[in-house]
Design brief:
Elements: H1 4-9, E1 15-21, E2 27-33, E3 35-36, E4 41-46, H2 50-57, E5 60-67, E6 70-81, H3 85-97, E7 110-123, E8 130-132
Antiparallel strand pairs: 1-2, 1-5, 3-4, 4-7, 5-6, 6-7, 7-8
């Protein structure tokens, strides 16, 4: 179960930085809209994006969110599904921008990326407030 402070940081309008592993082993990062529930962190991407192909090949992923000097990093494995992809991006868009998502054509395949944490690290703005939650 994700702690309440982790879920709060993974709520709009806090953006997430997703790190995936490229075929040559180097990191690739992307800025994404994020959401969390009691068990996992979610974001959406398109099937033709680098982060999707990276995660399909190697599901290891890290997501970092910062707010007012506090941040949380979630490391885990990505689960990819097309089911609910459009619905997720629309609801995230409403949370982050106040309007439904309209930035792509209907022929694009959107997916949900679900990340179940293996490790969670939080750091507070005050010195000495590092906490490993899992």
């Amino acid at each position: 179960m994700l702690a309440e402070k982790v879920r709060k940081l993974f709520a709009a309008p806090h953006y997430g930085v997703v790190a995936t592993v490229q075929p040559d082993g180097t990191p690739q990062t992307s800025l994404v809209w994020v959401r969390a529930d009691d068990e996992a962190v979610y974001f959406s991407t398109l099937k033709d994006r680098r982060k999707y192909t990276n995660l399909e090949r190697d599901p290891h992923v890290s997501i970092l969110v910062e707010a007012d000097g506090d941040y949380v990093e979630v490391r885990g494995r990505a689960e990819l599904t097309e089911q609910g992809g459009r619905e997720l991006i629309d609801s995230l868009s409403v949370e982050y921008t106040g309007a439904p998502f309209r930035a792509e054509t209907p022929d694009k395949v959107r997916v949900v990326v679900r990340v179940v944490p293996d490790k969670i690290l939080t750091v507070g703005a005050k010195p000495g407030t590092v906490e490993r939650l899992r």
